[in-house]
Amino acid sequence: MARRGLLLWLMLACQVPLAPAQAVPGLGLSLSEQQQILALGPWPPTWRADPSNRVSGDPLAIELGRRLFLDPRMSPLGYIACVTCHQPDRSFADHKARAHGLADLPRNTPALANLRLQRWFGWGGSSDSLWMASIRPMLDAREFDGSPATVARLFARDAELAACYRRVFAVSAQRDLERTLVNVGKALAAYQETLVTGRTPFDDFRDALARRDWGAASTYPAAALRGLRLFVGRADCVRCHAGPNFTDGAFHPGVAPEAGVAIAVAGLGGDRGRLEGSRSLAASRLNLLGPYNDDATRRNAAATRRLVVRESQRGSFRTPSLRNVVHTGPYLHNGQDDRLQDALQHLARTPAAPGAMRAAPLAADEVRDLADFLASLSDPDGERRPWTSTGTTRCP
Q1: What is the pTM for the complete model shown?
Q2: Residue intervals in the chain for CATH 1.10.760.10
């Protein structure tokens, strides 16, 4: 009898470490689901300066970048600015299917929030720093159609802006035109680093789980919870949309354009994606292996150094963040779906990637639940970002 009592005591003792595996009261979440949900936070992320950009986090550089962001004189024709496509009252995007500067472009305009968390920039990863990504539109004939000379000319015509530039970079904007172009990109990047989305209902739910506050967790909407369980479970969205910013930052095969879209936009189905981006990045002297990386150690260039251009990269695109996604349509790299549910249904009809969990297409009610979950990733300023100065900073 004593031996049986000892065995029973040992069995109960061994069960103690398994307590977290029990379902969350009233929510029914398994240990695996809890772990995956907790990995989607915390938010907001810790601030880290970009070592490749010596003015990252500098208040004066941020204010200069903010001014340049909305200055149409950045374009030789005088009516295209960064804000033309990245509008604060449209989630720093433009709500168009495909971007338009001086001419039509084949891809959707990405929203700018949380870009400082990325490793590669642009749908095809044609830049390896935020400042390089900020330079590319200035030189693209379809966007600004500018040059180092036209960018430097802006400061020659505006003494106040020139004085601001000199305060930030301690040199005249007319001294080295390519360096001026790069410095403008770095000021723009310093400003864009401040565009971070706020906390969301999902973040409150996730943190309630982390501190085991089941009462607070139970206020999360039931439909959003069902969508979240699909997200980390059978739909396997978390395979690509991972981490606190809901993106793995990697490149995956894009969804093929539907017939009507492909006909409407010539060549849309032939977008080479990461293949084109890799080639462009590797050939550019503005990448992190070049002379303008402010990190003398070049440790931040390791991924660029390892980059190999492969045919298998054709048609792959960078995974976008899902924060505030309900406000950043149209969707997919070519902007072919106007509504989020349309994009989800399009993706649900797409065969799962090799190794993915999804065994069957998602039902209509599951798509709605996923949409409800994605809606819970929106912050209070999800659609209309406040457009304000950086505070008391004045430049010059």
Answers
A1: 0.89
A2: 59-192, 222-375
Query: What would the pLDDT profile of 227-255 be if each residue is shown by its tens digit?
Result: 999 999 999 999 999 999 999 999 999 87
β-bridge mates for residue 382, sequence order: none
Instruction: Locate 215 and state its tokens.
Output: 């009462």
Check residue 348 and report its DSSP letter.
H
Interval 329-388: pLDDT, tens: 999 999 999 999 889 887 766 655 554 444 568 899 999 999 999 999 999 988 777 766
Handedness of CA 72, 106, 319, 241 (dihedral sign): positive
Please tell me the predicted confidence (pLDDT) of residue 173: 97
| Interacting residues of 313 by C-beta distance below 8 A, sequence separation 6+ | 251, 273, 274, 275, 277, 278
Cα-Cα end-to-end distance for the chain: 87
Backbone angles phi, psi at 314, to 5 degrees: -60, 130
Single-letter residue type at 316? S
Q: Describe the crossing of helices 59-69 and 159-169 by its angle, rounded to 10 degrees.
A: 140
Can you tell me the distance from the alpha carbon of 101 to that of 306, in angstroms, rounded to the nearest whole number?
A: 33
Domain range 59-192, CATH class: mainly alpha
SS3 per residue for 6-54:
HHHHHHHHHHHHHHHHCCCCCCCCCHHHHHHHHCCCCCCCCCCCCCCCC
The class level of CATH for 222-375 reads: mainly alpha
